[in-house]
Amino acid sequence: AGVVSTGDDFYGKADEELAFAALERDMLRHVPLPWFTALGNHDLGRTLALQRRRHGCSGPAVAGGTFGGRWTWLCPSVGAYSAGEELARCCPEAPRFPEGLVDLVAVNTNKFLMPAESGGPTWEGQKRWLRDRLAGSQARWKVVIGHHPIEFVPQSLLEHAIPGLRYFTATFMSGKPLVKKVFSRSLADAMILGGADAYVCGHQHLLAHLLRRSPPRRLSVSRAPGHRKDFNYFIVGSSSKTERGRAPSRWSRLCYKLEKVRCKMREFWWQSTIGFATLQVTPEQLSVEFFAVGSDGRARRVYRKSQPGEGVSDGSSAGRK
Predict the structure, then answer these.
(1) Domains of the chain: residue spans and CATH
(2) Where are its TM segments located (predicted)?
(3) DSSP string, 227-268
């Protein structure tokens, strides 16, 4: 068992040490499990992210907590890493991922914000590592964790409305428009062609599940024997902030853009609500469940997706809340 962060753990220019102390007090001590971190764009505004500097930190649970044991913060690299291997290295006493069941890897999707470390990973090196890792993995399920979505929903004026900035901030995940029909060199392509089953990300303040009707045209299945057509995208980016609070005009534009994305999808569900998701794997099934947290602090399941299987909404509020 473990907790996955899809990034943007710390916003603004607040004192980082105080911010991490608050995270430990309010969250880590109550969920004493390994915490695996993927770096977000708000995490990399400095020379080296706080998450990276805190790698290996550990602490006890609160007295009477739900779980026993200790929490451990894991962010070993500004590039890609294997969650299972890092858990074994840092927490030899912690339960291991069942051998051959799941290969969980985290990647840094911040192409233009990757901090320079002596001998550290490069963007191209990370892509090569990811594709080779996935292609060589014998695990039943292969899951990638990152920050930026693959299927972008243009919502932010800065990132997605200005043509030049949209090109530089989005296409490094999905492939450059001018060459993507000829070459498959994006980070998304490395995941798909490597045979990943699912990609879990954040960045957009939504809960969402997307499954394309067909693979992107730039990808040739004959070039990727391990490629799975049912490659699921999960966005879990609203643990503390949602899109619902935006100005009415921006909210309307977001809903319109989401409906345009729906046209490309075989399965598509989303909500703009505070919440989180759980991921469970067995030899027969990979299951993701989304939970919305109400004003009373209670969590209720609003959607579930099992692979193999179709996504199922719990209630009539799915899609636009």
Answers:
(1) 3-277 (3.60.21)
(2) none
(3) --S--EEEEE--SS--STTS-HHHHHHHHHHHHHHHTTEEEE
- List, for residues 158-216, the tens digit of each pLDDT value: 444 444 444 444 444 554 444 444 444 678 888 888 889 999 998 888 899 998 887 77
* Upstream peptide bond of 98 is cis (omega within 30 degrees of 0): no
Contacts 24+ apart (CB under 8 A), 115-124: 115/44, 115/47, 115/48, 115/49, 115/52, 115/78, 117/48, 117/78, 120/77, 120/78, 120/79, 121/77, 121/78, 121/79, 121/80, 122/79, 123/172
Nearest partner of 234 among 173, 177, 274, 289, judged by Cα = 289
Inter-CA distances, 66 with 101, 126, 135, 175, Å:
26, 37, 38, 44
**Could you tell me the two tokens for 235?**
């966005």
